[in-house]
Amino acid sequence: MIVDKPLAELEQYCPALTTASDFDAFWATTVAESDGQPLNASVEEYPFPSDRVTVYRVRYDGFGQNTRVAGWYLVPREPYRIEVDGATPTLVHYHGYSDSKGLPIRQMSWALQGYCVFAVDTRGQNGETPDNNVYNSGSILGCMTKGILDPATYYYRYAYMDCVRAVDFVRSRAETGPIILAGGSQGGGLTIAVAALATDKGIVGAMPDVPYLCHFRRAIEIFTDGPYRELVDFWKKHPYDVEQNYHTLSYFDGMNLAPRIKCPVLLSVGLLDTICPPSTGFAVYNHLSCPKTLKVYPYNGHEGGSEYHEIEKWNFVRSLLA
Amino acid sequence: MIVDKPLAELEQYCPALTTASDFDAFWATTVAESDGQPLNASVEEYPFPSDRVTVYRVRYDGFGQNTRVAGWYLVPREPYRIEVDGATPTLVHYHGYSDSKGLPIRQMSWALQGYCVFAVDTRGQNGETPDNNVYNSGSILGCMTKGILDPATYYYRYAYMDCVRAVDFVRSRAETGPIILAGGSQGGGLTIAVAALATDKGIVGAMPDVPYLCHFRRAIEIFTDGPYRELVDFWKKHPYDVEQNYHTLSYFDGMNLAPRIKCPVLLSVGLLDTICPPSTGFAVYNHLSCPKTLKVYPYNGHEGGSEYHEIEKWNFVRSLLA
Amino acid sequence: MIVDKPLAELEQYCPALTTASDFDAFWATTVAESDGQPLNASVEEYPFPSDRVTVYRVRYDGFGQNTRVAGWYLVPREPYRIEVDGATPTLVHYHGYSDSKGLPIRQMSWALQGYCVFAVDTRGQNGETPDNNVYNSGSILGCMTKGILDPATYYYRYAYMDCVRAVDFVRSRAETGPIILAGGSQGGGLTIAVAALATDKGIVGAMPDVPYLCHFRRAIEIFTDGPYRELVDFWKKHPYDVEQNYHTLSYFDGMNLAPRIKCPVLLSVGLLDTICPPSTGFAVYNHLSCPKTLKVYPYNGHEGGSEYHEIEKWNFVRSLLA
Amino acid sequence: MIVDKPLAELEQYCPALTTASDFDAFWATTVAESDGQPLNASVEEYPFPSDRVTVYRVRYDGFGQNTRVAGWYLVPREPYRIEVDGATPTLVHYHGYSDSKGLPIRQMSWALQGYCVFAVDTRGQNGETPDNNVYNSGSILGCMTKGILDPATYYYRYAYMDCVRAVDFVRSRAETGPIILAGGSQGGGLTIAVAALATDKGIVGAMPDVPYLCHFRRAIEIFTDGPYRELVDFWKKHPYDVEQNYHTLSYFDGMNLAPRIKCPVLLSVGLLDTICPPSTGFAVYNHLSCPKTLKVYPYNGHEGGSEYHEIEKWNFVRSLLA
Amino acid sequence: MIVDKPLAELEQYCPALTTASDFDAFWATTVAESDGQPLNASVEEYPFPSDRVTVYRVRYDGFGQNTRVAGWYLVPREPYRIEVDGATPTLVHYHGYSDSKGLPIRQMSWALQGYCVFAVDTRGQNGETPDNNVYNSGSILGCMTKGILDPATYYYRYAYMDCVRAVDFVRSRAETGPIILAGGSQGGGLTIAVAALATDKGIVGAMPDVPYLCHFRRAIEIFTDGPYRELVDFWKKHPYDVEQNYHTLSYFDGMNLAPRIKCPVLLSVGLLDTICPPSTGFAVYNHLSCPKTLKVYPYNGHEGGSEYHEIEKWNFVRSLLA
Amino acid sequence: MIVDKPLAELEQYCPALTTASDFDAFWATTVAESDGQPLNASVEEYPFPSDRVTVYRVRYDGFGQNTRVAGWYLVPREPYRIEVDGATPTLVHYHGYSDSKGLPIRQMSWALQGYCVFAVDTRGQNGETPDNNVYNSGSILGCMTKGILDPATYYYRYAYMDCVRAVDFVRSRAETGPIILAGGSQGGGLTIAVAALATDKGIVGAMPDVPYLCHFRRAIEIFTDGPYRELVDFWKKHPYDVEQNYHTLSYFDGMNLAPRIKCPVLLSVGLLDTICPPSTGFAVYNHLSCPKTLKVYPYNGHEGGSEYHEIEKWNFVRSLLA
Fold first, then answer.
1. D205 near D264, Cβ under 8 Å?
2. Model pLDDT, residue C1
3. Where do the Acetyl xylan esterase domain residues begin and end (chains A, B, C, D, E, F) (predicted)?
4. D134 contacts in B (CB within 8 Å)?
5. How many CB pairs lie under 8 A apart between chains A and B?
6. Which structural domains are found in chain F, ordered by start?
7. Cis peptide before D79, with omega less than 30 degrees from 0?
8. Do B239 and E272 lie within an 8 Å CB cutoff?
9. ipTM for this model
């Protein structure tokens, strides 16, 4: 059943980063480009059968052209809202690959605790948000290889920045206080990316679970299920593009982004995870220089710690705000 | 992809009941026996990271001897508790086959709405509740064939009555008002059973999803996945016991219990459900004579309506209490 | 092993069309819109290790904005080129779902026979052609549900017209004579669509194999493998959109398009096809009013008649030109 | 296809035992407790279509309370019975996990050779023997995690002693001579356990095949199929209990029991066994200090040597009695 | 789970035979040809660890040229041999597809009861018997399509007659009395064939279990697993040979052979059998005009009644000899 | 996803040959025996819908007795035929395991380039060529274990020599010039064998793709899919024959044959190939001492380089003839 290195090795596993020489410049340019682009947010109340939480239907401009990102913004009503220094701590939530932000009910257990929650779609997946970026070529069905011939055109450049812009949206709201990021699988990868790219935007904690999009070379070597397969399937048809594609991926690799993170991080891995193998999570964790906590679930797979870890997150958020 | 009859046929599908002549007597005796057995409940506060809900760890005597049933009892604190005529509406929750009541966090979205929640284990499954009933023979690993040679010794006679006794527990609490039952799959079957067997115990609504344990003959004929297989596997080794076993099962068949239900019911079925095939859910629904609502999810399987249906349940509960 | 109706029933199977009242208007408008849009084709020679066939790398504007469609155009050199009345018969080839036009070598056995061949990508699949249409919402990964909320925005409106425009490209070439369409699976569906929508563009024959995108209701009812699953997966998450989506699909259903075809058709079906079930192919065939030939492969699945059918196609093309 | 270490390494594989400090005391107490508990055996003739073998239906008290263990006792009639010093060598047979003692016919080829045979159920599996031990908590469906929080309450403490008591039953019979133990998979684990725990009860040989319940840590690390999965599934839901559970398992580990065995042992392993991986069998074998024979089947899985090994067992038993 | 018609329909299921006009002539010629060919049997004692049964290694000429058929002939020694009128009843056993006669130990439980047993290989499968018939063409790997273009050259013409010749061998032995045929799956089909073709050779009973090679058209229509797939795979590559091949198969179809059987038959079917679907067994049974008994195992698959049915066979044989 | 050693290790992987002492003598004798046996070829024109290529239906005597090998011989007509020094370069093509030479259309893209092509069946597989060799025993269904008890009787001794004789046939034709061998999987193994055994027969190049039948020990150790499984399945039933069988296989191992090859070789491997694992291809390549080229497809499996590699082969052949 062991699917990766033994735990003792994982704890020491700190592979060399694969950061390209212009990695920082690439992201500095990209973030600046996003910062210079207005959100054009629209916010309208959305009917929901609760007296305690108001739900808003939000749209804002995604990074680049043509793509409006959809989100649910949940705001607890008085007296159900937590306030810290007059503002409400806010969870920004990113979803897993091929999923969506879901219905507002998905975030209710956080909102009913008194937090604001902003849950956003990842573009071009199964939510209300298209991916209207303009690409130069086709790709394997799915998102993993869209625009992969160049870091500047790669799908996740846009998806990552959309997520940074979700933080920008939250910060534009009067009621919003300290920001905590959360998400599992792709949502974990997005959490890492935003924590790394938006270090000056009021984020006080990040909770990536079983993160995807980390340490691509190792992941491809050892995964057996899940969307890393899109890359393999692409390379079956484009065998001569492999190394160039790995170069592109290096800009988006959570392992390379990890050293930039400054806020406290609560990370989880499942040692039987065959979709996002544990060595890829440890590679991220061992490159973090921020305050950090790791929860290892020894016989769990990609579901991670589930209810046990949900409580860890409740406690982690409370500790951040204490 | 169609896995059962077409929808138009399902809507008319009302097979003959298979109720044995002593069906009512059997259950009258059983319920009386349970009513005469004390609960011996223990209730102790359990630490949980919330200021809004108090969690209690509950134990009470299951039906018959030797089995203490475990439950989580969640009580919202002031001012977070809903009150109807001075008492708090309470959800009693039953879980799916082979699962458990989980951790208290599983029920938090209901408790944080202001409802009391009592979530109990099904005996001998993966919770804190053993099945210490005394049996006369072995069985297929699992619960489906324990004691199946006689209705009086069948596992679900005990499991059903444990669930009725969960209602008894709730009614023993001062803060509890109207009771609503809920659960999916096996939890749906238990919801139907309790609604049918505890008609005079303050239950105002029942919300069974994709119910298991209904219309056994049809289910066995058409299912392809899930725990009905235990019966088939048992019959492979005991080919001469089949008809006797079906006789036992008839006492526990949700279809036979359905006509006894008086409270309003919100039922869901997924038309691609291969574990609890839709015709078995329709057989129950079409035998209900209480106020009833059916939600059909045409391309969902055993997951049913998921978030869509969760909202239906929020609304249904609100309508019951309006 | 039988996966659909018995052959005798299939031969008589002619379900009612599901053509919407504005079906003809919809397509008239769409075709006119395409006809009014310039191709802006680029054609450059591409190195290939053959003295007998010249390969050209072609790009032309896909339907609507922003999408350049890629194709390989193979032209036999003298004396290897067939001429009919001074022009060379030309095969236009469409590929299967999630695939691409491949490398030029894929079409060489036709080009080396002396035909021109134009093989084009389907947009947004695994070729060199992106799908840069602008959508209003997200979708299941893949193409089947992109823009499905409205026939005007549906992915295949664009994909179908790109294929019609491939015919336009061929007709713009001096060397091109009579046009024959070919393709299997999605390529079969596209062949049907183009034959139905481009009836006045010099097409003398169409050879759809095991066609996809035909008789959606039946296909969804009975398929077990392949991309119809995208629709089912979409409806799991959007259960209330099913009927609207079927309405959209009706405009793109090969069965509804079939009666419009005028050129001779050679169609193939495999009776064990679980991806594009045989009843959906018969539904098309039985609605054709043009000269038509059906080849039924009784124990083949989605691979169809393979080498046997390849010879049928060689013969069919020769007969068209005789 | 290699599923474990190479053969050369397996032959040397002798991992450290994981015996707890009170291991011997634990078993001394347990055996004494069993020895002090009467069998209360009942023996009644059971009709069987053979003139050569009489079949008896046996029941005796299992270890602890409430559980009557069922067995088939086959006694060859004169002149078909082998006698050694006036008594008949007797095979005690234990079955595989989730199975049962079967019907008497299963043991006929041994009885017809002239041996007595006693085949017993393992409690709570698919025979006529319930498991009416009283547990403190629930468990994964199946037996592997029942009572696992404490060695004293663990399911296999009872199951192992039931098997020792099967030897006690046989020894209580006048016609019984030297005793040989046999069984495959779980039956192999039980054979090892009884040989180790009942060293003074007339056992002259033990024939465990592809034994289960051996070297748990390694087994969990490398198995891919079969009931070790119950432990993994339990740990998914109880991630914090893993080490305590391993402590419990150490008392029941065939590897730890192996050094106690004194009678000759014939052990078999299949090098492609993914249910009871070969390294776990070698770990047992290499810790045996009794006379011992190993049969390695290099390309067999959990079926082991089948008919080849059946002959080995015929020969082994004959050699023990020679 | 239902895999074929409901039981009530199966009991009435008696499809038209597909017997060709020269069916009887074909078999008359074939049997005569075999009867005219000498056995050239060799019989040598084979070492086996039993004092009660002597094992002989037998070889005899298979039907046609070049193929020596291998068998184990087990003869109980005095006083272990049953005698009826001075001769020993003898079981002739045929094995399942792709298997072999196994080792002699496989038949020991019958020999130790006092019967002679002759277990023979089916040619060209996994025993010691090659298939050295001379064919005119290739075939799908396996035996099902060897020589299928003509009944005279079809593999099973030779395999069937080899089995008839096994009876001839037994009859050539002085110690042999009444003959009973047995076998499961392919062995069931061979049992039916021999019982039908060797009606005058001292056969007093036939015990086919879950027979293969019966009612080919229905079998192909409804099977999902097992060697009927060879035919389907062959037809994928030879789509134009299907009807001719069905014609060949008609000569070997157990359903067509059934009416010729005169001895008592004990037949078994499993209603969940997906390899040899139950309707094909009922088709045989309902065409039998001899004394006959059917055992239906309602929730068993191709394993049939296993130990339950083994006892049925012990009883059936005893009743034949009573 | 990595299924074998890392690429860097593969590049250095050169395991010891397992050549038996009489390896060269064995093959010298075998080849001489074949050379002494007449071909008795028959060649008749076969109708095919092409004006450019004439197809002939060929039969010739396979190695040993009784087996006529079938082949398609395609000869381009003037002016479509390439000529080198007045003769036409000729491709000899061997097919994959369990397949056949197919229909003539399969080789048309080579013939239409101007080459002669001779595509032959492998005996006893799914073509028109039986395997009428006389064997001494049965075998697993399939070819891998036929006659495996002795190199002299092993199936592939005959299959290899049939392929050498295909070269002999081609050399007997007036129009034939330099010979190039090609094939994938089993066809790759046959290509290697013929190149090694027919070094003096005008072969100027060999193009084995993803070759089967190479480095058996390693292959068996690491494969997971495909026909090596026949050996494993055979050894399950014949566990004591393993080493003898490996001895037989050593004579047919492409790795042992590789050093004998003198003509240029173009070899391909897919690093994710689980049927013919990459280390077995590298073992061959690293033992080649002829001019050689390796194409490694890093994320392809047994499909190898497909269209990319097809172009490599066009180029390789052109370079051989340049």
1. yes
2. 87
3. 2-318
4. 66, 130, 132
5. 52
6. 7-321 (3.40.50.1820)
7. yes
8. no
9. 0.97
